[in-house]
Amino acid sequence: MKRVIDSRDKDGNNTWCYLCHIKELPPGKSQQFTIRDEKQSKIEIAVFNVEGKFHAISNTCKHEGGPLSQGILKGKIVTCPWHGWKYSIIDGRAPHKGGDSVKSYETKIINDEEIYVNIIPRNLRK
Q1: How far apart are CA 85 and CA 33, in angstroms?
Q2: Measuring CA to CA, which of 46, 63, 108, 120 is 20 to 30 A from 19?
Q3: Pairing between β-strand 72-74 and β-strand 77-79 as defined by DSSP bridges
């Protein structure tokens, strides 16, 4: 299911964006979301639930734009469903030397039930 999300957290922090209730993304599943950055540009992300921990990366494969949220997840590596490119759901990096990377996003749980994502990619803050 694809959703466009624009709401922010209860503290008014505009870099954190509400995604969904944790029950909407059960363990072992992934979901695509469209969020908006500070300039209101759309960002497609894939969010994965691995044993109750939520990880977010760009939903768009670097090769030909395949939807990573529909990829095969083994451990913490997702394989693009179109041509088999692989990415870590933790940091967006390819698991092999010389591979392309996608952006990764920090997630957090608020009130023990709501999933939020930081709209600023992790690699931009390092």
Answers
A1: 21
A2: 63
A3: antiparallel
Could you please report the per-residue DSSP string of 60-88?
B-TTT--BGGGSEEETTEEE-TTT--EEE
Q: What is the largest CA-CA distance in the chain?
A: 41
**Domains recognised in the chain with CATH numbers:** 3-124 (2.102.10.10)
Task: Note the Cα 117 to chain centre separation in Å.
Answer: 8
